[in-house]
């Protein structure tokens, strides 16, 4: 007799996918050993070549907010093509969430507020790292980091304008959950005329 772990009834009654996301994310926060807020972020370059890497989800409001360097590879790609996708996989609860949408840079004051909560060392790292640029060797970054720390002793560390927050406003959110015999379940929400429609998909 197979066990069948479907969506919970309350999840099926939610009208907004954000509500399911909140529930799953809370569950992931208690179950995942490391980084339940880690998500893969896909962007696309000028040649249509996708590029994917992990980032951390730092805020959920009407979108999903992460922080990065505007001059990094992802920053350059997002500047030209605002379409992006993110994917969470919470292994310990065997759930996946895929999100597609448009990305925009959050207000500077919001980024300042978050930047100021970070440890001094992380703020300095964000300033010194010319993210995605080529180093002259393995020690260059740590050398520059130490020099910067010395030069800033006793001084305030302010967010540089190239360190920004991005908000992905979703137009599709898909929830996947594991079931026995690969009878996995998929529930996909699409934003149409400002309201969410839902479809169940074959796994
Ligand atoms: C778990 C995890 C979380 C990460 N979080 C971030 C993040 O929030 N922001 C960021 O810029 N890079 C983050 N990184 C590093 C990126 O994956 C990536 O190496 C970096 O942003 C450069 O990517 P790019 O050259 O494609 O722009 C994280 C890496 C890992 C493994």
From TrEMBL:
Residues 26-137 form the Pyridoxamine 5'-phosphate oxidase N-terminal domain. The keyword Manganese does not apply. Homodimer. Its cofactor is FMN. The lineage of its organism: Bacteria, Pseudomonadati, Pseudomonadota, Alphaproteobacteria, PS1 clade. It is an enzyme of class 1 (oxidoreductase). Pathway: Cofactor metabolism; pyridoxal 5'-phosphate salvage; pyridoxal 5'-phosphate from pyridoxine 5'-phosphate: step 1/1; Cofactor metabolism; pyridoxal 5'-phosphate salvage; pyridoxal 5'-phosphate from pyridoxamine 5'-phosphate: step 1/1. Catalyzes the oxidation of either pyridoxine 5'-phosphate (PNP) or pyridoxamine 5'-phosphate (PMP) into pyridoxal 5'-phosphate (PLP). The gene is pdxH. It comes from the Bacteria. Belongs to the pyridoxamine 5'-phosphate oxidase family. FMN binds at residues 53-58, 67-68, 74, 96, 131-132, 176, 186. Binds 1 FMN per subunit. Residues 163-203 form the Pyridoxine 5'-phosphate oxidase dimerisation C-terminal domain. One of its GO terms (molecular function) is FMN binding. It comes from PS1 clade bacterium. This is Pyridoxine/pyridoxamine 5'-phosphate oxidase. It catalyses: pyridoxine 5'-phosphate + O2 = pyridoxal 5'-phosphate + H2O2; pyridoxamine 5'-phosphate + O2 + H2O = pyridoxal 5'-phosphate + H2O2 + NH4(+). One of its GO terms (biological process) is pyridoxine biosynthetic process. It holds the Pfam family PNPOx_N. Substrate binds at residues 58, 114, 118, 122, 182-184. The keyword Flavoprotein applies. Its EC number is 1.4.3.5. Keywords: Flavoprotein, FMN, Oxidoreductase, Pyridoxine biosynthesis.
